[in-house]
Write a structure and sequence with these properties.
39% helix, alpha+beta, single chain, two-stranded antiparallel ribbon
Length: 212
């Protein structure tokens, strides 16, 4: 049996993992979208518990003490549009194309401004719906990228929900000023993971008093 880790050791590992997040976020923002896989692996280490493994924040006794920054829009049951992108935004690019992006710190519309959330709802509530009707939570975004799409493991079978959302315009299309229907560039799953990492880092910044 191994030696129980000290709190100082766990806090040092927290600092390391936050540094991993910041480095991966900078790489993602510089244009390397696949860096979202490493963001997802780090978020899994920090937040995801199973019967046989305990997240770093849980070992520190912090996971359920934090109030998590929540920038996700909610699914409107009266909205007839098939897709509801919760964590990403859409934009036109030079008038000839369109893409998804993570809003990070830009001012958000009122529908995306919420009080900080407890971990359970922040992690598991489903706010994204794709054109197939599949629902996505932060947990599903993170674990899909880390466990199936090459973050820590490559699943031998393609994930149909991921394929639809990430590679087949699973959030639908956008119309430009001329009425043309355009697909959107960017992997919605990867960009959502980037926004989740941003929310998490902002959450830690707001709880520095607990990180000692």
């Amino acid at each position: 049996m191994g030696v129980q880790r000290s709190r100082a050791d766990l806090l040092e590992m927290l600092d390391e993992n936050v540094a991993f997040l910041r480095a991966s976020a900078a790489s993602f923002d510089a244009g390397f979208e696949a860096e979202a896989k490493r963001l997802a692996v780090t978020l899994r280490v920090l937040l995801h518990d199973t019967a046989s493994s305990h997240s770093l924040l849980d070992q520190l006794g912090l996971k359920d003490r934090l109030a998590y920054v929540d920038t996700a829009s909610r699914i409107n049951p009266h909205n007839l549009l098939p897709a509801a992108p919760a964590l990403v935004l859409m934009r036109m690019t030079s008038g000839v194309g369109a893409d998804y992006f993570a809003p990070l710190d830009i001012p958000l519309p009122p529908s995306r401004i919420h009080p900080p959330a407890p971990f359970s709802s922040w992690w598991t509530d489903e706010h994204t719906r794709d054109t197939s009707g599949a629902l996505w939570s932060r947990r599903k975004f993170v674990l899909t990228m880390s466990n199936k799409e090459g973050g820590a493991h490559v699943d031998p079978h393609l994930n149909s929900a991921y394929e639809n959302l990430a590679r087949q315009n699973g959030m639908g299309y956008i119309s430009n000023a001329s009425g043309e229907t355009l697909p959107l560039d960017g992997n919605v799953v990867a960009i959502s993971v980037r926004q989740i990492a941003h929310e998490f880092m902002k959450t830690l910044d707001a709880h520095q008093d607990l990180l000692s």
